[in-house]
UniProtKB/TrEMBL annotation, chain B:
Belongs to the CPA3 antiporters (TC 2.A.63) subunit C family. Keywords: Cell membrane, Membrane, Transmembrane, Transmembrane helix. It comes from the Bacteria. One of its GO terms (cellular component) is plasma membrane. The chain crosses the membrane at residues 6-21, 28-47, 67-92. It is found in: Cell membrane. It is a multi-pass membrane protein. This is Na(+)/H(+) antiporter subunit C.
Automatic annotation (TrEMBL), chain C:
The chain crosses the membrane at residues 6-26, 31-48, 68-95, 107-124, 130-150, 162-184, 204-228, 240-263, 269-292, 299-317, 337-355, 367-385, 405-426, 447-463. The keyword Transport applies. It is a multi-pass membrane protein. This is Na+/H+ antiporter subunit D. GO terms for cellular component: plasma membrane. It comes from the Bacteria. InterPro entries: CPA3_Na-H_Antiporter_D, NADH_UbQ_OxRdtase, ND/Mrp_TM. GO terms for biological process: ATP synthesis coupled electron transport. It comes from Psychrobacillus vulpis. Residues 127-415 form the NADH:quinone oxidoreductase/Mrp antiporter transmembrane domain. Belongs to the CPA3 antiporters (TC 2.A.63) subunit D family. Keywords: Antiport, Cell membrane, Membrane, Transmembrane, Transmembrane helix, Transport. One of its GO terms (molecular function) is antiporter activity.
UniProtKB/TrEMBL annotation, chain D:
Pfam families: MnhB (PF04039). This is Na(+)/H(+) antiporter subunit B. Belongs to the CPA3 antiporters (TC 2.A.63) subunit B family. GO terms for cellular component: plasma membrane. InterPro entries: CPA3_antiporter_subunitB (IPR050622), MnhB (IPR007182). Keywords: Cell membrane, Membrane, Transmembrane, Transmembrane helix.
TrEMBL record, chain F:
The chain crosses the membrane at residues 6-22, 29-49, 78-99, 111-127, 133-153, 165-187, 207-232, 244-260, 272-289, 301-327, 339-362, 374-398, 430-452, 473-492, 522-546, 595-617, 629-648, 655-672, 678-700, 712-734, 771-789. Belongs to the CPA3 antiporters (TC 2.A.63) subunit A family. Residues 713-790 form the MrpA C-terminal/MbhE domain. PANTHER family: NA(+)/H(+) ANTIPORTER SUBUNIT (PTHR43373), NA(+)_H(+) ANTIPORTER SUBUNIT A (PTHR43373:SF1). GO terms for cellular component: plasma membrane. Keywords: Antiport, Cell membrane, Hydrogen ion transport, Ion transport, Membrane, Sodium, Sodium transport, Transmembrane, Transmembrane helix, Transport. It is a multi-pass membrane protein. GO terms for biological process: proton transmembrane transport; sodium ion transport. This is Na+/H+ antiporter subunit A. One of its GO terms (molecular function) is antiporter activity. It comes from the Bacteria.
């Protein structure tokens, strides 16, 4: 029962990833894609959490946190790129 | 599962091959990146999939899944990261000095 | 305890890293790097001699017994190559002192050279297939950096091709490793050999072996040498010389090792394929060598020809021909380094790259010019220079085996080599000098000495071939009888 | 045009701290749970990347005056010299030992040479990643 | 069915709820007209989705194995902390890189402040 | 005890010392010192003549590469004695001559170094018993000859002549080397003596015939036999002493030596007989025929040399028939051809040496060698004229000069052979006397041209740059000494026969019992027989032809200049070069995509082809792990993302898609229970994406691929091919389940390495070495990126490194 629910949830997460992928491919603007990528990251976090339950292991809990960190960093990097073209500045203006 | 993954590997390889055959250097670099994705999956698949538990002792019961390919892939990931970083920088340096990112224009002169 | 056999790899690495800290002290960097290479050469002489008395040496890293850990295995073949590589590098370093310039030296030139050598030596010594991959990468990364070092336009342009093709070959290597691991489930070369022998080298394993053939051919420049001419003619002279001497040899070594130790059961398929590839390599290499007027292109295609020649020894696969190939590899490392140094120096002295734009160098630089003559004869296999013995033995092996086509190609190729280099010699070295005395650039001693050293090397290697013969025959014997290697690795725990 | 990064910088301060802690944790726990020198190093590096992203090179250099090339070199040296140590001790190269010592204050402590090795790896990874990013970013 | 099993089931249902939320926000991302509206779907509802499923996982491990995972808690905190910032940055970037608003939008107050020259 | 090895090494040592001596000794011509070398050696060798004549041989060995059976073994017998004496004897005279010929302004140190180098090499060729060592010296003669021809290397013609000579002789040498190696393969030894003893067991060996042909190729190229003769006229660019020494008396005779030396090995075989004698005959005819039309005296002598070499070669061929018939009273008669060959060999060296020196004198004193500018020299150059007459008439085969004797014997041999009843000689044998006779007529004609056009007739001082005058005494000594031999041998031929030729006959016919039987008494007068009639005919018709030269010379015009062998050689080189350039540049396009296509196609063809050809392909999905829905969706996501990369309009989209691929792989690592991998993959993927973004700042947005649709189609086919092959092999590998992996061992990681994370234990301990090197790789990359960005080409640097 529990397992079935979990697998359904996983399938749903995967489904939203697929939809987000559509948005990445389709665009039309860069921020659209960034939003979608961010969403994929978030869905992956959830998926990993569920897979950990399914596989009965705590080994992947680190991955959840890391993915959270990285999704954040990637989003910042991309949005800075979209905004300014440069992602690491020499000297800030202010 | 193996069959599915191998087909995926095939697709990734084909895509990577097509990209690496492009004229644009960024495509070529992306091609190498996809190549490394494909091969990492391949190594893992060749070691057998889902054949045991996570290779952390005490975490679960034996048998564990084959840990050696995982170690190999880890090494391979790091190396391909190093190489990708290098060729990226190489590409933009070449663009800076040669003024083109088109490999057809970067043929070099076999002038005689 | 055989810790000594890791030194040819670890010493250059550690010294290279140390030199990073010594970045501002160029003189110190020079001395240390040269001393390191001389030290490695001495160590490899010691290793070589110990192998003769004690048999194959092996070192299990971390004390993990094969096949579980990684190990280094030093047999005569690898020790000979390590020795030659170290000597050639040391000599090239001397050339670098007065040629490469302070800008490069400050930009970690010496560390990169040392890393390159470390990778090369590691590839020669390792007994583990995945570790071979890693050693390759050490070597390749260093070579990528060295190809681009200086950032000239041609360097950047050619290095893209070089890097991408090598990435591809590394990818093929990983694919091949994945397949091999999927079939035999182990990575230790001796253990793989044992398992392959146990299961029989069926069609699938042969397929995998062909994949390995492609991988190493890409590295060795066997047939798939497209990266070679460009990337060997772009970088500074000394780097080109090191490439010419070392890089392809690693691929050749790997081919020899895998196809004598592991995949030796189906010679009618694999070795014939190697033979065909070697034959075509010889032909197209010869064509390339006469097609260009750029002296560096000619030198590069000479590398290709030599690759074909050496691989004939493997394709034939008799003990005699293997022995010949080993002689030839050693000879080629020295002679090719010399050729590239000479050619590069010519370009620096004259300021042009094509031989028909140079003339009469012999009047300005007599000793230099004679050295060019020596290397011409040496590469053409004219006795008693070093190329001769290898050529004879390869020919002998091939004739014994009835591979007459390969014999013909091999020997015709040496005439073409002669022709291609003679053209340079007659046009650039001989003839009226076109350099007026005031334009004449002085030839620095620092450039001449390494060339002369290599010249002495190739002459004495020919005259004193007997000194090498016991080592070489031991090496060939080990290659020919894989069980010696396997026993040394898998049985008895030292 | 000035772009105000106040929100980002404020959050970053907290987040970087979390990441650094987590990185160290990953590095230390690697021997028994997922993690280790590589991953620890990479995570630490990503913390630095985040710093550079949210701020700028100059101000980070001011508060953290490190030459990351040297950090990397030191890391490699550390990793290789653990192997070299075994050379001196006359055991096979790269022999790692682990032992439990009864130290007067800490009690029973596990000491492994692998940890030193991994520390070298981690330092090298941090150094290299940051060097790469800085080199590119500093380019005009 | 004992208590712990019920709680486990509850946790599973929490996760299912999360996944449904995620699908909804996914639909939002394809159905909504422009990036500004889509980012609502992405950042708000999918943050909710991940919080739900992480909490579910946390509860499950707690109940099932008696294991209080600091990492999961940390993860929850982290997502909670960073998701708004990320959303903010993306939309700001979008606006500054002049991504068009949907035609339905009636008012653009920021425009005069940021791009007076576009008038 | 005098060792022959020493005789070989001695010139080399002196050759190395000459440059140093030259720097010290300024006041006197260095040639005087150098001359001592051949004189010493000549005396040392001459002292051994009596013992060699009595059938003694000398044998010394010095280990060089004993493990490969390559030793510096020398063997002094009758045959090598002849050559040894010629080399040192003529060598002494040539050096003497050169002292006056070459002024001290020339770079004498080089000249004499090369000459001594050549001398040593030549002695090495004739004295070596070990085939490999023989080959060593053989190539050294080519090399030293190359250096001597190119002595005046500022002249283009010199360089080209040198190149041609080197290429042809070295190619022949290489062929010969292969022949030698084959001999070793057959007989197991490199020693000529041992091969001679054992060769009878191998005449049916498959390699026997190829070996013979290859060895002959070496001999023919060296001895300038048809059609390899073309290098010899060009080699005349060398200083005249060199031409006299190398290209008439010694080096070109190395081929003769080789054939003589190998007659006991291969002689007796039909192929050997026909090829040696027919090629010799053709060479003889072609050489003499072409010599007639040469306006340059030296070229005339060059073609004459070719012709004479052909004569000697054909005689050796004819003589080899005796070995086929075997030792009997009847077969002795055929050995006389060989005897004549050796005899003529000596004679030729004497008169041709003298003639070359005459040309040298004319050239040196008058500044030209063109017969059209010469004439009437005899009154002002009486000594030179005398020498020319003696040499010329000897070459023409007139008494009282040694050439007459050997020419008569040559005619005798050709007549004799046409009576033999093996090798279907009854039918074809008659060609030999006819060709020999015709060739001799031309020989007679060019001899007359040489003497008359140069020395007789009206003088043409107006065409000369210098006044006509006699050469200095020093230049005349050497040719006069040679003339003395020319005459002396005619009167006392038996002295030569007994001491020199008889022991060498024993070397050529080792199985033929007492060599005395093989040594005839040589008489100038032997009655009116066929050969005398032939000689008379030669004189009559030759004189007639010379008289009518103007009338029939247009015959030469019939031979189109397009189809000469020289043109053939040149066009071969240039078309090879052109063809190579076209082919090489055709595939070496410099375009990365092309190279990659080659590689991929090779991969598909070999790996894919073999997979199907060998039937290794197999597929079995029954053992697969189960598939969950979400996994399938994720696989689909990855596939779609990957394919979408191909069509991405902007680079960022593609990069993001690559990021999606990376993240999805991480999730697969999770599904496949690889936590460490998942962590690493996630971080690395993010950092890589960040790097892409960083670098995009410096790179332009990508444009649409502008390749032609054909290229795109090829790319697509290749891509799919690669994907399919990788896939199929992977399927087959998956089914290959013969071995347990070694990783079960690592499951004891905790006990072994003190770690519970197996992957980490492998990375840190079991395979810590990999990790160490991997860190080094990373480090190199980081440092490399740093240098690549910081170290740039200086703008002002000329881009010569291109």
């Amino acid at each position: 029962m529990v397992e079935k629910i979990l697998l359904t949830a996983l399938a749903l997460f995967a489904f939203s990833i697929a939809i987000a992928l559509y948005r990445i491919i389709k665009g039309p603007s860069m921020p659209d894609r960034t939003v979608a990528l961010d969403m994929i990251g978030v869905n992956l976090i959830s998926s990993i959490a569920v897979i950990s339950i399914v596989l009965k292991t705590k080994a992947f809990l680190e991955a959840i946190l890391i993915l959270g960190i990285l999704a954040f960093i990637s989003t910042i990097a991309i949005s800075k790129y979209v905004e300014r073209g440069v992602i690491v500045e020499h000297k800030s203006d202010n | 599962m193996e069959t599915l993954i191998i087909i995926l590997i095939g697709i990734l390889t084909a895509v990577a091959t097509y990209l690496i055959l492009s004229r644009n250097i960024i495509r070529v670099i992306l091609g190498t990146a996809v190549f490394s994705h494909a091969v990492h999956l391949l190594i893992l698949t060749m070691g057998g999939l889902k054949k045991g538990s996570v290779p952390l002792l005490k975490e679960a019961d034996a048998p564990y899944t084959d840990a050696l390919p995982q170690a190999l892939i880890l090494t391979a990931i790091v190396i391909s990261f190093a190489v990708t970083a290098f060729i990226l920088v190489l590409a933009y340096r070449a663009y800076q000095d040669l003024g083109s990112d088109d490999l057809h224009a970067l043929r070099g002169t076999n002038d005689e | 305890m055989n810790n000594i056999i890791v030194l040819p790899l670890i010493l250059p690495i550690m010294v290279g890293v140390l030199l990073v800290f010594l970045r501002p002290y160029i003189r110190l960097q020079r001395i240390i790097s040269l001393l390191t290479m001389i030290g490695v050469a001495c160590i490899s002489v010691y290793i070589l001699n110990r192998i003769q008395t004690e048999g194959i040496m092996r070192l299990d890293f971390g004390g993990w017994k094969p096949p579980f850990g990684i190990l280094f295995v030093a047999d005569s073949f690898s020790a000979l190559l390590v020795l030659t590589a170290s000597v050639v590098t040391a000599i090239c370093l001397i050339y670098a002192f007065s040629s490469i310039g302070e800008r490069h030296e400050r930009m970690f030139f010496y560390p990169f050279i040392l890393f390159l050598v470390a990778g090369v030596n590691g590839s020669f010594l390792t007994g583990d297939l995945f570790n071979l991959f890693v050693c390759f990468e050490v070597m390749l990364l260093a070579s990528y950096v060295l190809v681009t070092l200086g950032g000239e336009k041609a360097q950047l342009r050619e290095s893209i091709k070089y890097v991408v093709i090598n990435i591809l070959s590394s990818w093929f290597f990983l694919v091949a490793l994945a397949y091999l691991y999927g079939t035999v489930g182990t990575l230790n070369m001796a253990h793989i050999s044992e398992r392959v022998a146990e299961a029989g080298q069926g069609p699938l394993l042969t397929t995998v072996s062909i994949l390995f053939l492609i991988v190493f051919s890409l590295k060795a420049g066997l047939l798939l040498f497209f990266w070679l001419p460009g990337s060997y003619s772009a970088p500074p002279t000394v780097i080109a010389a090191l490439f010419g001497a070392l890089l392809t040899k690693v691929g050749i070594y790997a081919l020899f090792r895998t196809f004598t130790l592991i995949f030796y059961h189906e010679p009618s398929i694999t070795h014939n394929l190697i033979g065909i590839m070697a034959g075509i390599t010889l032909i197209v290499g010869c064509m390339g060598a006469v097609a260009y007027k750029d002296v560096r292109q000619i030198a590069s295609y000479n590398v290709v020809i030599a690759v074909g020649f050496m691989l004939i020894g493997l394709a034939v696969g008799t003990q005699t021909s293997l022995e010949g190939s080993i002689y030839y590899i050693i000879h080629d490392m020295i002679a090719k380094a010399m050729l590239f140094l000479l050619v590069g120096t010519m370009i620096v002295l004259t300021g042009v790259t094509k031989f028909d734009q140079m003339s009469g160098l012999i009047r300005n630089y007599p000793l230099f010019s004679w050295m060019f003559f020596v290397v011409t004869c040496s590469l053409a296999g004219i006795p008693p220079l070093s190329g001769f013995v290898g050529k004879v033995l390869v020919g002998q092996g091939a004739i014994e085996n009835g591979s007459y086509v390969l014999v013909a190609l091999a020997f015709i190729s040496s005439v073409v080599v002669l022709y291609s280099l003679l053209r340079i010699f007659l046009n650039s070295i001989f003839g009226e000098t076109i350099i007026s005395p005031e334009d004449e650039l002085p030839l620095k001693k620092g450039l001449l000495i390494p060339i002369v050293l290599l010249g002495i090397g190739t002459i004495s290697l020919g005259l004193e071939a007997e000194v090498l013969s016991s080592y070489v025959s031991d090496a060939a014997n080990t290659l020919f009888n894989p069980s010696i290697y396997i026993d040394a690795v898998l049985s008895g725990n030292k | 045009m000035r772009i105000n990064d106040v929100i980002l910088r404020t959050v970053t301060k907290i987040v970087v701290f979390i990441i650094l802690t987590f990185g160290v944790y990953l590095f230390l726990s690697g021997h028994n749970t997922p993690g280790g020198g590589f991953i620890g190093g990479l995570v630490l590096a990503s913390a630095f990347v985040l710093l550079y992203l949210s701020s700028d090179i100059e101000s980070v250099q001011k508060s953290l005056p490190l030459d990351f090339k040297m950090v990397a070199a030191f890391g490699v040296l550390l990793a290789t010299s653990t192997g070299f140590g075994s050379l001196l001790l006359g055991v096979p190269f790269l022999s790692q030992t682990f032992a439990y010592f009864d130290l007067p204050i800490f009690g029973k402590t596990e000491l492994t040479t692998v940890t030193i090795f991994e520390a070298g790896v981690a330092l090298a990874v941090v150094g290299v990643v940051v060097t790469i990013i800085l080199s590119i970013s500093e380019d005009e | 069915m004992n208590t712990s099993q019920i709680i486990e089931l509850g946790a599973a249902l929490l996760i299912l709820l999360g996944s449904i939320m995620s699908v909804i926000s996914a639909f939002g991302i394809i159905r909504l007209p422009d990036v500004y509206t889509r980012s609502h779907a992405a950042t708000k509802s999918s943050t909710l989705a991940v919080l739900l499923s992480l909490s579910g996982a946390f509860v499950y491990f707690w109940v099932h194995e008696g294991f209080i995972s600091v990492r999961l808690l940390l993860g929850i905190v982290f997502v909670f902390l960073t998701a708004p910032v990320a959303g903010h940055l993306i939309t700001r970037a979008a606006y500054r890189s002049k991504v068009k608003l949907t035609d339905n939008s009636s008012d653009d107050a920021l425009k005069e402040v940021l791009f007076p020259e576009d008038k | 005890m005098f060792s022959v090895n020493f005789a070989i090494i001695f010139p080399f040592i002196i050759a190395a010392l000459v440059p140093f001596l030259y720097r010290r000794i300024k006041f006197v011509h260095i040639g005087w010192f150098v001359m001592l070398v051949p004189i010493t050696l000549f005396i040392l060798l001459a002292r051994l003549i009596p013992s060699v004549a009595s059938g003694k041989t000398f044998f010394h060995t010095y280990n060089w590469i004993p493990s490969l059976d390559i030793n510096f073994t020398t063997y002094l017998d009758g045959l090598s004695m002849i050559f040894g004496l010629l080399i040192t004897g003529v060598g002494s005279l040539v050096i003497l001559y050169s002292i006056f010929y070459l002024s001290t302004k020339e770079s004498l140190q080089h000249f004499y170094s090369y000459l001594l180098l050549f001398m040593g090499a030549m002695l090495g060729v004739v004295f070596s018993d070990n085939l490999m060592v023989l080959y060593v010296f053989w190539e050294l003669t080519s090399v030293s000859s190359f250096l001597l021809i190119a002595f005046w290397n500022h002249r283009k013609a010199s360089r080209q002549g040198a190149q041609k000579a080197m290429l042809i002789t070295v190619s022949g040498g290489v062929a010969m080397l292969v022949g030698f190696i084959m001999l070793h393969t057959m007989t197991g030894t490199f020693s000529v003596r041992e091969i001679v003893l054992s060769i009878r067991d191998f005449t049916d060996h498959t390699l026997f015939l190829p070996t013979m042909i290859l060895v002959l190729l070496g001999a023919f190229t060296k001895s300038a036999q048809f059609p390899f003769h073309i290098w010899l006229p060009d080699a005349m660019e060398a200083p005249t002493p060199v031409s006299a020494y190398l290209h008439s008396a010694t080096m070109v005779k190395a081929g003769i030596y080789l054939v003589a030396r190998f007659t006991p090995v291969f002689g007796g075989d039909q192929v050997w007989f026909w090829s040696v004698s027919v090629i010799g005959m053709m060479t003889m005819f072609w050489g003499s025929f072409n010599a007639v039309r040469q306006p340059d005296l030296k070229a005339l002598l060059a073609y004459s040399t070719i012709s004479q070499l052909g004569l000697i070669m054909s005689l050796l061929g004819l003589g080899s028939i005796a070995l086929n018939i075997g030792y009997s009273a009847d077969s002795i008669i055929y050995t006389q051809a060989t005897f004549a060959a050796l005899f003529h060999l000596i004679n030729h060296s004497t008169f041709k040496g003298a003639l070359f020196m005459v040309v040298g004198i004319v050239d040196h004193e008058l500044g030209t060698r063109d017969i059209r500018r010469l004439g009437g020299l005899f009154t002002l150059m009486p000594f030179t004229f005398t020498i020319a007459v003696i040499g010329g008439l000897s070459m023409a085969g007139l008494p009282p000069f040694n050439g007459f004797l050997s020419k008569e014997m040559f005619f005798a041999a050709t007549v004799q052979i046409s009576n033999a009843d093996v090798f279907s000689l009854q039918t074809f044998g008659v060609i030999f006397p006819i060709v020999a006779w015709i060739a001799s007529i031309f020989t007679f004609v060019y001899c007359l041209i040489f003497i008359i056009k140069t020395f007789l007739g009206p003088a043409q001082p107006e065409k000369l740059d210098k006044p006509i005058h006699e050469a200095p005494v020093g230049m005349l000594i050497s040719p006069l000494i040679l003339c003395a031999f020319v005459v002396g041998i005619f009167f006392f031929p038996d002295l030569l026969g007994k001491y020199i030729l008889q022991p060498s006959m024993a070397s050529v016919y080792p199985t033929f019992g007492d060599p005395k039987e093989l040594t005839p008494s040589i008489y100038a007068w032997h009655g009116f027989n066929a050969e005398l009639m032939m000689t008379i005919g030669v004189i009559v018709i030759g004189a007639l032809l010379y008289n009518q030269l103007k009338k029939w010379k247009p015959v030469y015009g019939l031979f189109s200049q397009k189809y000469t062998f020289n043109m053939l050689y040149n066009s071969m080189l240039s078309s090879t070069e052109k063809g190579s350039t076209i082919v090489t540049k055709g595939y070496m396009t410099g375009f990365l995509r092309d190279y990659l296509v080659y590689i991929f196609v090779f991969f598909i063809v070999t790996v894919g082809g073999f997979l199907f050809y060998s039937g290794a392909f197999s597929i079995d999905i029954s053992t697969d792990a189960s598939i969950r829905v979400y996994e399938a969706i994720l696989v689909g996501v990855m596939a779609v993302a990957a394919v979408a990369m191909l069509f991405a309009k902007s680079r960022i989209t593609a990069t993001l898609l690559n990021g999606v691929l990376g993240y999805s792989i991480a999730i697969f690592f999770v599904i496949f229970r690889a936590p460490d991998l998942a962590l690493t993959q996630l971080v690395v993927e993010s950092v890589t994406t960040a790097l892409f973004l960083l670098c995009f700042y410096f790179l332009p947005e990508w444009k649409r691929e502008t390749s032609s649709s054909k290229t795109k189609l090829t790319n697509a086919i290749v891509s799919i091919g690669v994907g399919v092959v990788v896939m199929l092999v992977a399927f087959s590998v998956l089914n290959y389940e013969k071995f347990e992996t070694i990783s079960r061992y690592f499951e004891n990681a905790y006990e072994l390495a003190g770690g519970a994370n197996i992957v980490n234990a492998i990375l840190g301990d079991f395979r810590g070495f990999d990790t160490m090197l991997e860190v080094v790789v990373l480090f190199i990359a980081g440092l490399g990126i740093f240098t690549m960005i910081k170290l740039r080409a200086k703008k002002e640097d000329a881009d010569i490194e291109n």
